[in-house]
Amino acid sequence: MEQLFELRPRKDLLDPTFEGYKLSLDPLPVYKHEVPVAVEHLKPNEDQFSFQHVKTFGLHNHLVDDPWSDEVAFFISKDLQIFKINLHSLVTQCPEFKSVWQIPRHLESRDGWFNASLSFAGPELAVVTDGGGVLHIVDTGVRTPANSHLWQAKLSSEVLGNSQPFKIAHATLNTTESNQSETLSVMALKVESIDEVESQIALSVFGCNEKETPFINCLEWVEYEHLDGHWSFKQLKRLAIPHGLDYASVLSPGKAICLIAREPLGIIFDSKKDVAAPLATTETIQDDAEIKVAYTWAESSEEVTVWMTFDKQTSKHDLIVKIESQALKVVYKNQTYVDGELAHPISVGSSTWTLSDGKLEIILPKADKSLSWNHLIEKDLRGRKVLDAGTAADYESVINLSIKETQAGSGGRPPVFSSEQLEECDDMPMDESCIFRFDGETNEFTHKAILSGQLLFFTQSAPGLAPAFCLRHDVDGLVWQPMGDELEQSWGCLHTAALQALGYIQASKEQRKFTVAPPNMTYAALCDAFSHIYIYRQPNCTSAGVEMVHRPTGRRVGNVARQQVLNIDSTEECLGALATNSFLLLLTSSSLFAIRVNSD
């Protein structure tokens, strides 16, 4: 059971006397530059119609900042070149756009792919994907404007599936305690049909079905190890998030992750161990009458047929049936019911399974038709060999009784209460987001907090820290920093900054596409999909403009919270936004706009 914790704001960062923003007509320098190659902008195809698809494509930020260097930014062109932007050159007539790497293109058609994405895991390491199933680990060198080092790929991997689109949510590089190796942790986000998700437990555990959740978010936590100068795959964990993921990051030192999502969610696959509840191990029973029948099976000269019986309401999404050349595994929801080595090899390609009215039938064609089977599963006494399907039906009542006893798990006692006794006020709303800490060693959620406010945006933090996120608190926007696991205290999130009235303001901007803020949090910018930019300077911003006077008292006000509105000279959609302490950058398909917000 996860530990509940609270997000506690710091009172010294709140300003209960804040009166609002004053509209400023002061002009801001805006520099417009044409990009060397048009920016990549892929859109969903006809099969990508879910809300998760629209969110993944529509909110993709094509401008990428670098936590290790505030002098550069990056974008990916439509021909899959990665360009480095020298920010200081944007105030000149000769901006510096340098192509640092060409992402390999293994297919001509990119229909159904996500937009290519990039994340910096270390001071000289990046993780790149073409959006179509290939993950590249790239040596970037020191990423300063003066460094002309071209990037070099160290490993290209299809561990997440060939031609299966995904985007990189976060990546981080950690050194082992002995300093003998490095571990790269990557968070990759997929949107998959529930029929195509590779899972070790049934997706119905999380309420998935074809009608309500035909597509779900899958968060892939993949790790690579750097040892003796070579990168190699280490492990993969997969989490199912049916109702959408808002935030994901790896917590230092790489043993846990932080998520913002709606319940239910949970782990469904681990490359190192099975996440399904294991088959109960019992001592060898001498008296056959005491053995509970779990399945029946029969053989002919051509094939072996297995029957199992479940509740009549059981659907295919309640079952995981894994058939190998000489192994069979059946998982009902998150409980393993059959798992073991078959008596003889079978033909996997010709094997099938069907489900009707809760009755599961598995057909296993024999690889060697001359062999007779004395048993189905090695060392499994819960099976009964019968002559045919008719004889198997005689055991149905026995199997049903066995399953009901297993599922009850409480000695047959009636439930403490009925759901019909609950009133409307007792119901937990399904659209309530929570923040979680998931432990990679135990595969369990260890901490949870219910979010009382809307997630406004997230932003890069200092190198080595997870990205910070901003939540609405009353009318303000509060910035929270997830803690690393190095601290010897209970895990939580630290309140680091407050953006006055941002929650109230953002709620009124219906055309808003991006919300960004610089590392020093002196301003916040709301960018519409087209043309309009709203900049909200905080009271602590040193760019004061004109000095203002409070008329009733004559008191001079030095730092005033100000609002500035800009109309960008472009008819193209805004594809990316990035805020630095000095510049606000906006990217369209053909142009880059640099707005000088603060002087250095």
Helix-residue proportion: under 10%
Whole-angstrom Rg:
29 Å
Low-confidence parts, pLDDT < 50 over ≥5 residues?
282-288, 409-417, 424-430
Beginning-to-end CA distance, first to last residue:
49 Å
Number of strands: 41
Query: What's the number of helices?
Result: 4
Output the strand order for the largest sheet.
1-28-27-17-16
Binned strand content: 35-45%
How would a textbook summarize the main sheet? Answer: 5 strands, mixed
Q: What sort of overall outline do the alpha carbons produce when their principal axes are compared?
A: elongated
Give the helix/strand class: mainly beta
The average pLDDT is 88
What features would you describe in this structure?
- The protein is mainly β and 600 residues long.
- Helices cover 5% and strands 41% of the residues.
- The radius of gyration is 29 Å and the shape is elongated.
- The strands form ten sheets. The protein has a five-stranded mixed beta sheet with strand order 1-28-27-17-16, with no helix packed on it. Strands 2-38-35-34-33 form a five-stranded mixed beta sheet, with no helix packed on it.
- The longest helix has 13 residues, at 396-408.
- Strand 27 and strand 28 (444-450) form a beta hairpin.
